[in-house]
Each structure stands twice: as structure tokens, then as C-alpha cells.
Design brief:
With 163 residues, this protein is α+β, with helices and mostly antiparallel strands. The protein has helices at residues 5-8, 37-46, 57-62, 72-87, and strands spanning 26-34, 94-102, 111-123, 130-140, 146-157.
Length: 163
């Protein structure tokens, strides 16, 4: 037996190919993610998002919030990230995003969950080895309140391209 663990490793394909998706298909993405105060402060600093709502508690309170507000771009990235394993993990270029709506603020200590529904599948006219899949994804907090939703599309490989 080989001592090199790589020789014994088995490749386990992950992700879904174009044929695995159908309109109306729903995914409840697992785990969820609790956002901490340090998450939003570090994210805001690293992305140069110098809105004091995201890192100054006194400023946030003066503007009607109980504490700092989680940077909305971080909220979007977390919700999108939670959907990747089910929707786009196998790879393929990101085609676009639209209809992004923020419904309510997120605060440190909130836990975000994500779910998606396949809303469109079509073969690519310019790239016959791929299709384009579009999902409607929504993020909810620990109380099941919607915090944001959006639509996104990815190019997804066909299992058996023709030609």
C-alpha cells in the first residue's frame, strides 16, 4: 500500500451540471452564518466602506439603531456564498445579478440563512457546451424575516455536450 495518501484518495465530484437543474427546483442551503461585530468592522475596513453606521455604535444609535449595522455588501456576500454549494460550486462564469433588494438591516449577532429557487434554464446560444441557469435567492435572519433577495445567473457545463 502506498504511503502517499494522495495515491489512495478518491476524486468525489461536487456540484451540479446543467441537466441537474429544473425550473421550480428549490434549495434550502445548509448551515447559515452568524455575523459578528468584528466581521462587519473588518469587512468595512478592508473594502474602504467608511460609513460610520458600520463601525461607530454611537453614530448608529444617534440614527435610530440599537447598535452598528452590518455592512449590506457583507450581507449580500454571505447569502450568495451560502448558495454556492448547491447552485454554482462546479464552476462556470458568473453571468450576472439583478433585482437585488434589501428588506431590513442586519445587526451583529444575527444569523443569516439562504435559499434559492431555479427560475430559468436555457442552452447557451454562443457556447454549446454550456447552459445558463438563473436562480432567485433570498436571505433570511434567525427569525425567518427576509433581509434581502436577488436573481443571479451562471454559465453551467452540460453533462454531455452535443457536437
Amino acid at each position: 500500500m502506498s504511503k502517499d495518501f494522495r495515491a489512495r484518495a478518491k476524486l468525489r465530484p461536487r456540484g451540479h451540471l446543467y441537466e441537474d437543474f429544473s425550473v421550480g427546483q428549490e434549495f434550502v442551503h445548509h448551515w447559515g452564518r452568524t455575523i459578528t461585530e468584528s466581521d462587519t468592522i473588518a469587512f468595512s475596513t478592508l473594502t474602504l466602506s467608511f460609513n460610520p453606521l458600520y463601525f461607530n455604535a454611537e453614530y448608529a444609535r444617534a440614527h435610530g439603531h440599537d447598535s452598528i449595522v452590518v455592512n449590506p455588501l457583507l450581507v449580500f456576500n454571505v447569502v450568495l456564498g451560502l448558495s454556492v454549494e448547491d447552485c454554482s460550486e462546479i464552476g462556470g462564469p458568473f453571468v450576472g445579478l439583478g433585482k437585488l433588494t434589501y428588506h431590513k438591516p442586519v445587526f451583529p449577532g444575527d444569523t443569516l440563512y439562504s435559499r434559492s429557487r431555479t427560475i430559468a434554464c436555457r442552452l447557451s446560444a454562443s457556447n454549446p457546451a454550456n447552459g445558463i441557469v438563473t436562480w432567485h435567492t433570498e436571505g433570511r435572519n434567525q427569525h425567518d424575516d427576509p433581509v434581502l433577495d436577488f436573481e443571479r445567473s451562471n454559465l453551467v457545463r452540460l453533462r454531455a455536450p452535443k457536437g
